[in-house]
Amino acid sequence: MIVHKNQVVTLGQFIIERQADFPYAKGELSRLLRDIGIASKIVNREVNKAGLVDILGEAGEINIQGENVKKLDVFANEQFISALTSGGECCAVGSEENEHVVDINSLVSKNAKYVVAIDPLDGSSNIDVNVSIGTIFSIYRRTSLSGPGTLQDFMQRGTEQVAAGYVIYGSSTMLVYTTGRGVNGFTLDPSIGEFCLSHPNMKIPKEGNIYSINEGNYVHFPDGIKKYIKYCQEDHKPSNRPYSSRYIGSLVADFHRNLIKGGIFIYPATAKSPKGKLRLLYECNPIAFIIEQAGGKASNGFKRILEIEPKDLHQRTPLIIGSLQMVEKAEDFMLKFSPAEVQV
Ligand code: P6P
Q1: Are 119 and 99 a contacting pair, CB within 8 Å?
Q2: CB of 251 sitting under 6 A from ligand 1
């Protein structure tokens, strides 16, 4: 916990202090981040007791990804949309749980300046086995002038994000975000119900010794990724190899570990997911914004994630993200052994 002038700095205080650095800011983005923080606390409460109440198990629905929807996915999606609706700073939401853009059509919100792309509960297949899961969000200024938010408002490259962050519901609950001026992490103190600054100015080590990939898909990986995995497994002490293999199967948990310890996470194109599995708008772009602000790198193997032109709300992309030198090494292998895989 960071004590700031003998007091704990809460997320709200931090946002307001930082807002002072934006001379023309009128507080809308600050209020939007506050709204996301509030919804995160409500979701956290339900995630923490998911094993105790009948909120587990299949909601009986299939979401547009073709996956069984767990009740907690539905609950989380509803909480974030509700908080953004009542907060009045967001005019539309693009959610993993909704096929189309959700118009935040309230008197207050329809001329709001921002749109939010969100994965309300990523890794939800891990809920039943008590593995850390997370929320991932990305905030853009709308490009439409007024009225209901549109799909076009979301068709912006990741470089246009004004803020991005994630919440990890784990052994402790943390909210980590950036507005383009560094990355800061806040840990929820349940005794006061506040996110408190615990990880100021987060930076990922330039080099790490953890590689994170689902090697069960090995036979379907591009040759460049196969060669990189073998590179990670070589016995070469001067470069700290073999690296350790760590794969939780929950993006936020794998990403958060690597952000703190250093490492590389890879979800490449596979036979089952020829464009990659992870979504550009509400999974890859927000964590790519964060990792670059923390001194790391994120690409699809050839192109910076933040420069990919979105064409669809649920567009997928291959992802290589983490410590700068590790990502660059993986990209070298992709260029040398899988040039034909160049993604447009
Ligand atoms: P696989 C969870 O379903 C998720 O979307 C991410 O959180 C995670 O990184 C990935 O899929 C795991 O996918 O194919 O390895 O199970």
Answers
A1: no
A2: yes
Q: How many domains does the chain have?
A: 2
Name residue, tokens 């934006």. Answer: 22
The pLDDT tens digits of the residues spanning 241-252 come to 999 999 999 999
3-state DSSP: the chain helix, strand, coil percent, rounded to 5? 35, 25, 40
- Tell me, in angstroms, the distance from the centre of ligand 1 to residue 123's CA: 6
Residues with Cβ within 8 Å of 107's Cβ and at least 6 positions away in sequence, in order, are none
Same domain, residue pair 174 and 242: no
At 121, is the secondary structure helix, strand, or coil? strand
pTM: 0.93
Chain segment 168-212, per-residue pLDDT in tens:
999 899 999 999 999 999 999 999 999 999 999 999 999 999 999
Owning domain of residue 140: 11-199
Atom 5, ligand 1: which residue's CA is nearest?
Answer: 123
**Does 89 map to a domain?**
yes
